[in-house]
Automatic annotation (TrEMBL):
Signal peptide: none annotated. InterPro entries: ATPase_NBD, GppA/Ppx_hydrolase, Ppx_GppA_N. This is Phosphatase. GO terms for molecular function: pyrophosphatase activity. Pfam families: Ppx-GppA.
Length: 295
């Protein structure tokens, strides 16, 4: 059985198709298709408060492509979720309805809490009994989640993200709010390890020297960030071989991860290859099972 997740973010829209694997009682998901396209919806929303007709047209075309791919793969269940940009766009719900009418793809505009919850459901599997601060930086928002003994003890969504910073549109006092939240919630007497999710931390981690298979240090993330910052945008694309839509946001995104880690006094970060799309797949699977149990 194949299931699909579509994640329409402020920077890019991703689709992942996974096969459901059964090994005795253990269920796992194997990625068989992954497509990412840089829609940059955040550029419209953080500057004008709404999505332009051009962005609507491109999003509609992309959903048609994703629909065809799902048909080719014979996907049995899917869910499309839109996050920060579409939820803040004054015309977001109208556009979602028009896209559904044109393509048959229903887009769920989810709030920051639901977004964090879906990511948490998969991230928690990578944790042990220590204190962890999960940092998820998107184009439009940053989600922080604190875990102790594999239990989430607190979480908060902040209106600061890589595209928002790039456009100079972060909300007033957003940095201070994050610093205060970290100070109020992290137990300074216990060791804390950061967990990073999102496309930018994955790219930074790929370029970094590793301490473990999934881990590196704050010092190393800072070194990579500073190295990238010395290159012009053209050189980041041509010499460092970064995608054009990654090249301009990777430094602002790194600044968020680095700042949060410093405020939390976390010297280590683990970067599991997980994100919102994996949380959506898990949700689609549980809904599929529930539906078939009732029939």
């Amino acid at each position: 059985m194949k299931l699909a997740a579509i994640d329409i973010g402020s920077n890019a829209a991703r689709m992942q198709i996974s096969t459901v694997l059964h090994n005795d009682d253990l269920v796992s998901f194997k990625r068989v298709e992954y497509v990412r396209f840089p829609l940059r919806l955040g550029h419209d929303v953080f500057n004008f408060g709404e999505l332009t007709p051009e962005s609507e047209a491109r999003t509609t075309k992309l959903m048609q492509v994703y629909k065809l791919l799902m048909e080719l793969h014979e996907v049995e269940g899917y869910m499309a979720c839109a996050t920060s940009a579409m939820r803040e766009a004054s015309n977001g719900p109208d556009i979602a309805r028009r896209i559904e009418a044109a393509t048959g793809v229903k887009i769920h505009i989810i709030d920051g809490q639901k977004e964090a919850e879906l990511i948490n459901n998969v991230v928690v599997q990578a944790l042990d009994d220590r204190q962890f601060l999960h940092i998820d930086v998107g184009g439009g928002s940053t989600e922080l989640n604190l875990y102790v003994n594999r239990q989430k003890v607190n979480s908060r969504s902040f209106k600061i993200g890589s595209v928002r910073l790039l456009e100079g549109k972060e909300t007033k006092g957003a940095w201070r709010k994050i610093e205060d939240w970290v100070e109020d919630n992290v137990d300074a007497s216990r060791e804390i390890i950061a967990v990073g999710t999102g496309g930018n931390i994955s790219k930074l981690f790929n370029l970094a020297a590793k301490t473990t298979e999934e881990g590196t240090t704050l010092t190393e993330i800072e070194r990579i960030r500073n190295h990238i910052a010395t290159f012009s945008l053209d050189d980041r694309i041509n010499k460092l071989r970064l995608n054009a839509d990654r090249a301009d946001v990777i430094v602002p995104a790194a600044d968020i991860y680095i700042s949060v880690m410093k405020w939390a006094r976390a010297s280590q970060i683990i970067v599991p290859d997980l994100g919102l799309k994996d949380g959506i797949i898990q949700l689609v699977y549980s809904q599929h099972i529930k539906k078939h149990k009732t029939h």
